[in-house]
Amino acid sequence: MGIRARDLHIPFEGTPGQHNAITDVDGVHVGHTTLIEGAGPLRVGQGPVRTGVTAILPQGQIHAPVMAGVHVLNGNGEMTGTIWIEESGWLEGPVMITNTHSVGTVRDAVIAWTVERRLFHPLERDVFWSLPVVGETYDGTLNDINGFHVKPEHVFAALDAAAVGPVEEGNVGGGTGMICHGFKGGIGTSSRVLPQEDGGYTVGALVQANYGSRRNLLIVGVPVGQEIADLLPEIHAGAAPMGAGSIIIVLATDAPLLPHQLRRVAQRASLGLARMGGMGANSSGDIFLAFSTANTSAWQRSEATQVTMLPNDRITPIFEAAVHATEEAIVNAMVAAQTMHGRDGNTVHALPHERVRAVMRKHGRLTIDD
Question: What does DSSP say about strands 95-99 and 133-137: parallel, antiparallel, or unpaired?
Fold first, then answer.
């Protein structure tokens, strides 16, 4: 794995899990397919290609629906399948993340993968229906987005490669061509483990970060965007409006929460985003999903079932963990990402690590002052 935010001695709040990733929640698997090809002027259908797809499997490659909730901070974006989550309270398959114009391909491929792997519970014989969950952010500033380079085989590859343990970050998967606060963005993840007196539960976050203006960028409260005002994107064609973009945030926990509680957890991703300087701009699709890996045996077609529920009076530590994990996941995405040259020579620079450390030192915010 590459360098991460804690390697820069940035003082985040809370205690991370073993991998400081969403996969610290038992059962959660993550996989990516990354597509990088070509250089030079945009030739629609040929490239340059800077895109991909990311898969989050709540319980690995088995059919094991989990309770879930959804929150939308600003709705200029898409996450398919969320109407049924809001109605039923269940997430019945993987969560996929890709670019804006590949949502349909990814959705259809997930159904095909589900059929081929037989990861469904039929209504009768082989009769079933599926409403896959696919979120998106726009990568057209760096990628030939109208070339539709994400194919079904890439979706299959991400799903089949999904694994536990460390998670690749930065210019990978659906985050390959993304921009965050005017620096290179992409995929980031983090986790928090609660003290035993709060239940010892784990909360993990994974983000696809593609939002925000430079002047608003904060890292642990330090105005990094104002201190590092240069290294702005060099855009020759296909520029998006300043501050435009989106972020998809997926939260996982092993705490026994019901769907209405998980919707409340998803809401708290907004606060982690705000701590980074995210403003929910008009052109931003800020869509958040939270799920719980507890009570997995509760999903049934016809039998009555029982569930365990954490009291609302004990849920605040989960909220705090969701905020802190979201914040660090976004920083991890930026720290891991590397400078990328895309279509028409458009260039987005990586967050300069040593300059960030210097800004942190100036503001007295390094965990180790070296």
Answer: parallel
